[in-house]
User: Which sequence fits this backbone?
């Protein structure tokens, strides 16, 4: 399983969606798009096995796949990409990673029993 530290010094934006990560959902935030209040948004604060916390934003088409994931669940995500965005979402101020994950519509979710 990959951690969030893979090759972050080499590239600032990964388009490799072949990576699968195992993470715990530390926090889940549902909201509304600031430009269209009828569009739901979903983001997470995820924690990898080393304890690194990273903000993850779910793209609109992937919302249905990830909306029922509960806080505290361990999951595997295949197809997420690392973005170089380094702004701090006020809902995820405890993120310890310099970047964020984008979870696009092609991502797959698997529950992990620990």
Assistant:
């Amino acid at each position: 399983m990959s951690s969030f530290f893979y090759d972050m010094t080499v590239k600032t934006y990964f388009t490799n969606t072949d990576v699968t990560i195992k993470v715990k959902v530390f926090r889940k935030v549902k909201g509304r798009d600031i430009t269209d209040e009828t569009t739901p948004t979903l983001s997470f604060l995820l924690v990898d096995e080393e304890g690194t916390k990273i903000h993850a934003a779910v793209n609109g088409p992937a919302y249905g796949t990830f909306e029922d994931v509960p806080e505290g669940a361990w999951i595997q995500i295949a197809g997420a990409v690392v973005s170089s965005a380094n702004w701090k979402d006020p809902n995820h101020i405890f993120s310890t990673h310099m970047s964020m994950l984008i979870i696009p519509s092609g991502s797959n979710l698997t529950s992990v029993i620990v």
